[in-house]
């Protein structure tokens, strides 16, 4: 078959395309290059060939799991020191992935997640308390408080453990250790291996961070084993005692610990970043803010917010989806071809190529999203808009067997948090002239985005 060459910015002899990107900000680099090169382009970085897919047609073709899979390359390899064969960083053919996936899928379903309502509300109330105490004069750094929220929710709902980030001046040491490891892993994956070997001190610091995090998870585990809580609805009992329906095995102790770290990594920056983006959009588009608040007032009013309200908060849910479509926390998704193949019937790739899916450009493709793809408009999903999208159009949570296992968890947590915030507070931007910029770690979030909050009249 005839293939069409994949465009590539002219590489330099020694550095390949390193000069064409900012290695610490791959998302923004890829959006900028997509503007120039269109639906697909290629980069040569640290000895590896990266193929970036930017359009609906090219990305959608890689969701064919008979021809493509999630590769454990690049940053995923680096993250294995912390996350091992946990769900996020294991190969699909690793035994531990199958065991954990089968054991955990049912408890992560919407019905399993509803049991976590009280735990989530407990932490959301702590955010409300903090915002009340800060009062309308103080600025709130969104990424800080939404990180506190997301981290504490996972700690409590997954392991029955309180990180108590709302009771600290800064954040729990685990949060900082984790951020350091995520940033360092990203950097290591863009360096040549020789250079990584020479960076002895940063490697030692990384190991110390990883050990501290593993030690904390082990402590939480030992505590639960010594003091069983048979009635707890958190995930720790499932992790420790549930049996794989296929092999009859429980998860190994080491794998439980890797998955504990995995939930903390996968669940806190993503959820926290999405809430930050969401409030950015709502505050930039006051009529959308009003619509979301009106829905909250109609559905929940001043009364207590209960699990039965959840399915009725449609605008709130699609406001979150639209924030994810516009610019989600996971900017790039990774794939590779199982055999040499043609992407979209024309672009030749080999299994050694790392295929990156540029989710922002993909979810702005005007062929799917129309001429107003660059506008923040939750209405596009209403009245069947979501159901009638072409196949695989909305993929903020990934695809296929390796899609986000925490989707229902994240959706419930975010809908709950947004509803409680809109029910009780009037939120405004601390600086009305703020322009969105992106702060990258493993995920992206709005950089230095600050808000001010005051109680809505009569709501206290
Ligand atoms: C995987 C997005 C929240 C746990 C993924 C993937 C995406 C994603 C795109 C696929 C990654 C890949 O293909 O490499 C999101 C977004 C979230 C979110 C946008 C919030 C807005 C959560 C939460 C948890 C979680 C709250 C846990 C409680 C995981 C795990 C995986 C995963 C364990 C790996 C699944 C596997 O490969 O088997 N997520 N996620 N995520 N996510 Fe999430």
From TrEMBL:
Superkingdom, taxonomy of origin: Eukaryota
Protein name: Bifunctional cytochrome P450/NADPH--P450 reductase
Record: residues binding heme: 404
Family: In the N-terminal section; belongs to the cytochrome P450 family.
């Amino acid at each position: 078959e005839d293939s069409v060459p994949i465009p590539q910015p002219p590489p330099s002899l020694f550095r390949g395309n390193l000069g064409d990107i900012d290695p610490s900000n791959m998302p923004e680099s890829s959006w900028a290059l997509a503007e120039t090169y269109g639906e697909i382009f290629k980069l040569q970085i640290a000895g590896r060939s990266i193929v970036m897919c930017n359009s609906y047609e090219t990305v959608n073709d890689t969701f064919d799991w008979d021809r493509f899979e999630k590769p454990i390359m690049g940053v995923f390899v680096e993250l294995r020191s912390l996350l091992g064969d946990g769900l996020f960083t294991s190969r699909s053919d690793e035994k531990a992935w199958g065991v954990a996936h089968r054991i955990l899928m049912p408890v992560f379903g919407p019905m399993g997640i509803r049991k976590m309502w009280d735990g989530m509300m407990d932490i959301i109330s702590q955010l409300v308390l903090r915002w009340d105490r800060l009062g309308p004069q103080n600025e709130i750094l969104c990424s800080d408080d939404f990180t506190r929220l997301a981290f504490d929710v996972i700690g409590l709902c997954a392991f029955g453990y309180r990180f108590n980030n709302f009771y600290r001046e800064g954040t729990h040491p685990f949060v900082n250790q984790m951020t350091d490891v995520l940033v360092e892993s990203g950097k290591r994956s863009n360096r040549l291996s020789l250079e990584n070997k020479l960076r002895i001190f940063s490697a030692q610091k990384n190991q110390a961070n990883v050990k501290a995090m593993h030690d904390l998870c082990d402590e939480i585990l030992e505590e639960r084993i010594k003091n069983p809580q048979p009635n707890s609805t958190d995930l720790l009992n499932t992790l420790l005692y549930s049996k794989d329906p296929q092999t009859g095995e429980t998860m190994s102790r080491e794998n439980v610990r890797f998955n504990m770290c995995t939930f903390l990594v996968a669940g806190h920056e993503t959820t926290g970043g999405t809430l930050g983006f969401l409030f950015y959009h709502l505050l930039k588009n006051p009529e959308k803010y009003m619509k979301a608040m009106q829905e909250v007032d109609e559905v929940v009013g001043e009364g207590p917010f209960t699990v039965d309200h959840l399915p009725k908060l449609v605008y709130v849910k699609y406001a979150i989806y639209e924030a994810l479509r516009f610019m989600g926390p996971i900017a790039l998704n990774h794939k590779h071809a199982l055999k040499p193949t043609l992407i979209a019937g024309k672009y030749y790739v080999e299994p050694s190529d790392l295929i990156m899916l540029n989710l922002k450009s993909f979810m702005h493709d005007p062929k799917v999203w129309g001429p107003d793809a660059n506008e923040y408009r939750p209405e596009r999903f209403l009245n069947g808009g979501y159901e009638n999208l072409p196949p695989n159009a909305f993929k903020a949570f990934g695809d296929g067997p390796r899609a986000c296992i925490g989707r229902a968890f994240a959706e419930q947590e975010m809908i709950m948090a947004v509803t409680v915030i809109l029910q009780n507070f009037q939120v405004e931007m601390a600086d009305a002239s703020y322009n969105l910029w992106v702060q990258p770690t493993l995920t992206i979030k709005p950089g230095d985005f600050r808000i001010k909050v005051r109680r809505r009249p009569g709501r206290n």
